[in-house]
Amino acid sequence: MSNESYSTISDPALLSPDVSRSNLWRLTLAQALAGANSVVVFATGAIVGSMLAPSPLLATLPISIFVVGMAVCVFPAGELARKYGRKAAFIAGSVAGVLTGLLAMAAMFTGLFWLFCLSTLLGGAYAAVVLSFRFAVTDGLPPEKRPQALSLVMAGGIVAGVIGPQLVTQTMYLWPEKMFAATFLAQAVVAVISGVILYGVQSPAVKEQHGGGRPLMEIALQPRFISAVVCGAASYMIMNFLMTAAPLAMHMHGHSHESSNLGIQWHVIAMYTPSFFTGKLIARFGAVRISAIGIVLTGISAAVGLLGVDVNHFWWLLILLGIGWNFGFLGASALVLECHKPEEKNRVQSLNDFIIFGLMAIGSFSSGGLLSAYGWQMVLWVSFVPLVLAAVALSAGKVAKLKA
Length: 404
Hints:
Blueprint: H1 17-52, H2 61-84, H3 86-110, H4 113-131, H5 133-136, H6 146-155, H7 157-171, H8 181-198, H9 216-220, H10 223-252, H11 257-272, H12 275-285, H13 287-306, H14 311-337, H15 345-374, H16 376-382, H17 384-403
Helix pairs in contact: 1-2, 1-3, 1-4, 1-6, 1-7, 1-8, 1-10, 2-3, 2-4, 2-15, 3-4, 3-8, 6-12, 7-8, 7-11, 10-11, 10-13, 10-14, 10-15, 10-17, 11-14, 12-13, 12-14, 13-14, 13-17, 15-16
């Protein structure tokens, strides 16, 4: 059954409609608030890095460390959820989110670059837990309702796209002598509120046991899973690659912080607004087709960036990049749900996210160096390589499915 979809296999325990609706709204609202923490890091990370780092080449290191935090914490968060339930992972993530803001604020007052990097590492751990919301909302739901529930939770990111940049814009000068310090304090408060909301989430009683299901390698070698991972990794890697470099590139080309914040705001809104209908599109046209559209849109966004360095070029690049990420990543996530049985979900979902964030870290580490050494144009040209690989993987997966 390695090549067969598991979308027709129901979980042993289904939640009641009332509990499922409560979970959906709680996770959607938490996505909006907790997602704002990540937006704050992306909007400020490279700029604060350039202020505190001993070398310009290290300006984007805090964001790269944020991505590393996501990668290294995926498996611990999944293990915590497997042993003690999703709620335990949510609480641990919320604590990391609070510490992210407090340590970043302390870094601004002390001028310690390593302390700011530590804060973004914890921010990455928080983000790894937040991204599990998309899978958590599908727990206890019948298979036919999962893609739309996943999509609706991700739609909470629309509010994050407003809260995050506005949090930065409205607070970054509150303490004039310590720019962004008040922003990071507000970031910690938002994480506390999100944690309170998450405390009410209920999960099915069924837990995954050690050794439950097939060997992980057998699952990972499914053509469908490979397609999902490659497409998800390319979508997220390029989104992070360009979003990390864009604020600093705008600063280098003489654009204001406010213009940069607004660009990030529209980017994040574009990332999540399609989620209101992405799930329905996946149900109608299939996850592979929607993922492919996302890859194409991401390529178009990079092409727009190559046309010029005016504010409008950056803004349109970021908007198209956000839409492309939504189609590519949600399509890939829906494919992952077809690759595992209920008892395999935490291991398979953690493996998927670990691979994605691990590859994403490579892109994040390289973007700052490429931007400093070779300029914005080179960053854009390099972004096409993973997109080509994703297109090949999707095509190969589709051919393998037809032969199966």
